[in-house]
Amino acid sequence: MSEKVFDRTELAKFDGQNGQPAYVAVDGVVYDVSDVEAWAGGKHHGNLAGQELTSVIDGQSPHGRKVLKKLPVVGQYHD
Q: Any transmembrane segments, and where (predicted)?
């Protein structure tokens, strides 16, 4: 089975609202943050699931990319 590819429109569907999983994209990889308590409801410190967040995690996040290692990868992001 090939890896799922998300574009901006497809990724936006996974916003953690109305029973949807919460996904975020960083540097071309889509991660599932649904089971991360800090992402409850698809929101985390003003950021929303269903978006590409490379600049946020690299420029604003105190923990940086190290937290990504713990997350399930669900696909690739190409816009």
A: none
